[in-house]
Specification:
Radius of gyration: 15 Å
CATH architecture: Alpha Horseshoe
Order of helices and strands: EEHHHHHH
Strand order of the largest sheet: 1-2
CATH class: Mainly Alpha
Strand content: 5-15%
Helix content: 55-70%
CATH superfamily: Tetratricopeptide repeat domain
Mean pLDDT: 84
Structural class: mainly alpha
Low-confidence stretches: 1-22
Distance between the termini: 38 Å
């Protein structure tokens, strides 16, 4: 990808709206899922920075939340739980917001990373809390 191409762009004639295209978050996600953690981190860091700073992205906080969550998944895979937690918990309300443009699978993956963190750290109460929130996503794609 070149520059910020492919991250997000405004629709012609519709200021403030975004068209989702394959982006650095998606690339980072694929690399994480392939176990290529070192390669995944730079595109995810770039996506997080872009989504947090670009005014066009401000109405879409779920974009930054997803990028942060995948950065947390990298730290989780490296068993660096102290660094993983702030990334994983950044913007968690977006994973349950009815207005968030996320698929049910994207929501389950994001919350699943949080469950894994607490399971791995031996905190079953926290893991159960987040597991129940995932279960609430089943069916409707959102939780109340």
């Amino acid at each position: 990808m070149q520059g910020n191409a492919g991250i997000a762009e405004p629709l012609q004639g519709q200021p403030g709206t975004l068209r989702r295209r394959p982006d650095r978050t998606y690339l980072g996600r694929v690399l994480v899922e392939q176990g290529k953690l070192d390669a995944a981190e730079p595109p995810l860091q770039a996506a997080l920075k872009f989504f947090r700073e670009d005014p066009v992205c401000q109405p879409r906080p779920e974009l930054a939340a997803q990028a942060a969550n995948w950065l947390g998944a990298i730290r989780l895979a490296r068993t660096n739980y102290a660094e993983a937690e702030p990334y994983l918990l950044s913007g968690t309300e977006q994973f349950f917001a009815a207005t968030a443009d996320m698929t049910p699978n994207e929501r389950r993956l994001a919350v699943g990373h949080i469950v894994s963190l607490y399971q791995d750290r031996g905190e079953p109460e926290q893991a159960t809390y987040w597991r129940k929130r995932i279960q609430a996503l089943n069916g409707s794609g959102t939780a109340q």
